[in-house]
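quick one, two chains, predict together pls
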Amino acid sequence: MIKIGYLGPKGTFSFEAMKKYTGNGPYDAQDYLSIPEIILAVQDGKLDEAIVPIENSIEGAVNATMDMIATEAGLMIKAELVLPIREHLLVKPGTDISGIRYVLSHPQPLGQCRRFLSGQLPYAQTKAVYSTSAAAQEVAEGSNELAAIGSAAAAAEYGLEIAKTDIQDNHNNHTRFIVVGMNDSPKSGNDKTSIVFSTEDEPGSLYRVLDIFNLWDINMARIESRPAKHRLGRYIFFVDLLGHREDGDLRDALIMVSRKTSFLKILGSYPIFREPSEDK
Amino acid sequence: MIKIGYLGPKGTFSFEAMKKYTGNGPYDAQDYLSIPEIILAVQDGKLDEAIVPIENSIEGAVNATMDMIATEAGLMIKAELVLPIREHLLVKPGTDISGIRYVLSHPQPLGQCRRFLSGQLPYAQTKAVYSTSAAAQEVAEGSNELAAIGSAAAAAEYGLEIAKTDIQDNHNNHTRFIVVGMNDSPKSGNDKTSIVFSTEDEPGSLYRVLDIFNLWDINMARIESRPAKHRLGRYIFFVDLLGHREDGDLRDALIMVSRKTSFLKILGSYPIFREPSEDK
């Protein structure tokens, strides 16, 4: 059994991502309360793999994940997975939604469903709780005046009914997750490589690194900066490149990058995620 | 009187930054509860200026500020200001710290003082509240078993005593604030220009923009990406450049940038912040 950790409790979007990743495979899933704890558990050998969110199409980068994978030695990214974030209105089976007086969820889903709430449930009060799973649980144990905002997985987990589907204001809401372990993945022919580096403190040093990728015709799918933490105005950069680190051009480019940076860590190569149904 | 808005209540670090910026000038300061509200108040003409945090040396970019200045038309950055984030242990005057049972603050300062708390107050429970000011107020109105973590301004505002100074684990903790209004600033000879842009959805398009700055010898002080929000994997980029937008080279480079981007907004030119005591 492969031990995999996720951000719990059951019914979170991380739980849903974990189920999508593990499928019917031989996995023993364990829930954790925070991203640093999950990643440290892999580091300490308590877990074989961890699945953690890294970016959302609306909120942006997940800083806790970025900071942990930059600093914790030895871990590599072995897979990525994109999950559509679909928020539903969850109630106890048989509840009449006209009687709902309180809507419970984490502050983020509450904010992402503001238009639905003011349009459809203008007299209901919102109540912020620790997680969408906690909201679902409270609804399951409470009166018919309560509803929660949460995922289909949360509904299934706590025996709730989906009264309204897809109530989020922005329908282009996706979260990308990564799977980290002690190794990355072999070449699949359609791969991505993630790196993190810091440059010398001199003008044009970031440009000179990007120039290397341009010279070797390597495409950049993403660039993010995070503070270097020792001084305001100093950054580390996360870059996702198309290709596998064992491809000749990418390997040569990374050797050159290591000469032009003060710190370089190859976070791993892994297949680019594609929905089974995706055509283009 | 110039009407300026800040993230309140009194005693927050934003309040402290606002006092540092306004000095003894003719300002009427008004506190707001969220960054979007402050920025929209400038847009609507209810405020002349707003001072908002934009990045912290440990936590990184302040997303609410980045997203508002990218999308709200007409506003310009006219100044920047850096504030050291000094967290103190605040108690009612005369309190013996060995009797403290509860330490109150916003979750972020509680997290940033973890080492101090476990070392010096191992038996005290932490309690997360909405803001450091709310924590200070609760301590001021409560028993001698309570302490808050907060700023010197919060101590002054709520009549508390600083029992321990600089209790944050990382002493390189600074926040950069920007002042936005309807105009930016004239040339001072030591300026910075902030822009935001999105590129065409084709390989190498970000590189081609940075290449323009390289050609014109313009130095980049910062680059940040934020999601474009309509699709995962599409970004907008915030870049700070050294120089004023009326400098010949920078002006010419920006004309070229406007030809190579699908969207470009010049957020303003303003003097680079320097502490009065700073030598280099």
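The interface with chain A takes residues 55-60, 63, 82, 170, 172, 174, 176, 203-204, 206-207, 210-211, 213-214, 219-227, 229-233, 235, 242 of chain B (CB under 8 Å).
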